[in-house]
Design a protein that fits this description.
Layout (H helix, E strand, L loop, with lengths): L3 H12 L11 E5 L2 E4 L4 E4 L2 H4 L8 H11 L14 H12 L3 E5 L2 H18 L9 E5 L8 H5 L4 H4 L9 E4 L4 H7 L4 E6 L15 H11 L3 E5 L23 E4 L11 E5 L1 H4 L15 H16 L2 H22 L4 E6 L4 E5 L6 H10 L2 E2 L1 E3 L3 E4 L7 H19 L1
Parallel strand pairs: 3-13, 5-6, 5-7, 7-8, 8-9
Antiparallel strand pairs: 1-2, 2-3, 4-10, 9-10, 11-12, 12-15, 14-15
Helix pairs in contact: 3-11, 4-11, 12-14
The structure holds 4'-deoxy-4'-aminopyridoxal-5'-phosphate.
């Protein structure tokens, strides 16, 4: 007989497109930091859906907010005003320190919003001829999967066969100001960059890079747009990763955790002078800022505040980092580096000894969910509600996986 797990995996393999290759775990239900599969096995969620489940699975307050809203109205589209969108945007702007926010659904949509806004700003405000605007992006970037966005990826895997791509993007090396200056022209209207490169393997920039970039952008009248889809809302131990750099961007992109672990909610934030380039009819999405999404996202922001999840991420992140460094030292030479900020860690595996994928599969078999990035990095991004006891258990499993591999 076919196991329940094989049955569900088989259906996905038969009827789905083959655009993902997850580990063989079929999730049945989840609560906070724990996940149960269809065989009744329990897992510690050390991945949190790539930082989308920062509040823990099915946070009771966020579920209750959704249920309250489901008793009123869920989706109306932006054809009408509602009772939840305004309060959500007000709260979001207060937390992030921007004058306006534009709600969308996915991270990629909010990035597309940023690109459109930057180009219009470049034309309307900076006076660049329309069609000549250029945006600088980092090598190794990840901003989503639409054709415009993969068009400026530097990863062959994300691009191959998907051309032709939109022009108007130029690359610099993440962390290298000389390459920013070399890539810029008089038509440069914006720099679009992650504060820490997530999909590239949790790459932390060299100290001082962002301060210098900020100064250069101001001097050259170029917008600094920071994509915090993965890093934002407490992940790095601050509300926003740019705070570690002592800077403020001109615009901010949020997603993932903004949906409270329940729904896709993203946003593009900027001040009047930048957001003002949008007028009615110039941009939008049927579901962006819908009544249910806004209710859920608002409650999610309040939960982060009320439960002090940002401080918790800083403290437990430091602990997770320290424990992983200890295990890495013990398992030398399997691990080349442990890096990250807050509850966001990349463990760099020496490919001479193991692939990240095989270790991720062994971790899953041992009851810990993580994610490999490329062939060499294992990424951990647990819910910010994780406990010290669960971190200890997860690290213990990881230690055993590494030591077994080395043996
Ligand atoms: N920006 C960053 C920094 C991301 O990490 C991601 C997703 N990993 C995205 C954008 C795209 O978000 P989505 O998958 O919701 O489109």
């Amino acid at each position: 007989t076919v196991s329940t797990t094989q049955n569900f995996i088989g259906k996905e393999a038969r009827w789905g497109a083959r655009n993902y290759q997850p580990v063989p775990v079929v999730v049945d239900h989840a609560r906070d930091c724990l996940v149960w599969d269809v065989e009744g096995r329990t897992y510690i969620d050390m991945m949190g859906a790539y930082s989308a489940v920062s509040h823990g699975h099915l946070h009771p307050r966020i579920v209750a907010a959704a249920e309250r809203q489901l008793g009123r109205v869920a989706v109306t589209s932006r054809a009408y005003h509602g009772t939840t969108l305004g309060p959500f945007l007000e709260k979001l702007c207060a937390i992030a320190g921007f004058e306006r926010a534009l709600p969308m659904n996915t991270g990629a949509e909010a990035v597309e919003t940023a690109i459109k806004c930057a180009r219009r700003w470049g034309h309307f405000v900076k006076g660049i001829a329309d069609g000549r605007q250029e945006i600088l992006v980092a090598r190794g970037n990840f901003h989503g999967r639409t054709s415009t966005i993969v068009g400026f990826s530097s990863e062959p895997e994300y691009r191959a066969g998907f051309g032709p791509f939109a022009p108007g993007f130029a690359h610099f090396d993440f962390g290298d100001m000389d390459s920013v200056r070399a890539a810029a022209t008089g038509n440069t209207c914006a720099v679009l960059v992650e504060p820490i490169q997530g999909e590239a393997g949790v790459i932390v920039p060299p100290a001082g890079f962002f301060a210098e970039l900020r100064e250069w952008c101001t001097k050259n009248n170029v917008l600094l747009i920071i994509d915090e889809v993965q890093s934002g809302l407490g992940r790095t131990g601050r509300w926003f990763a740019f705070e570690h750099e002592g800077i403020r961007p001109d615009a901010l992109i949020l997603g993932k955790a903004l949906g409270g672990g329940l729904l896709p909610v993203s946003a593009f934030l900027a001040d009047d002078a930048v957001m003002g380039v949008f007028n009615p009819g110039s941009h939008g999405s049927t579901f962006g800022g819908n009544a249910l999404a806004a209710a859920v996202a608002l409650e999610g922001l309040k939960v982060i505040e009320d439960e002090n999840l940002v401080a918790r991420s800083a403290a437990l992140g430091e602990y997770l980092n320290k424990r992983l460094r200890e295990v890495a030292a013990e398992a030398a030479p399997l691990v080349r580096a442990v890096r990250g900020r807050g509850l966001w860690v990349g463990v760099d595996i020496d490919p001479a000894h193991a692939t990240a994928r095989e270790l991720v599969e062994k971790l899953a078999a041992g009851g810990v969910l993580s994610k490999e990035t490329h062939d060499t990095v294992i990424r951990f991004a647990p819910p910010l509600t994780i406990t010290k006891a669960l971190v200890d258990r997860a690290v213990q499993v990881f230690r055993q996986v590494l030591l077994d591999k080395r043996a």
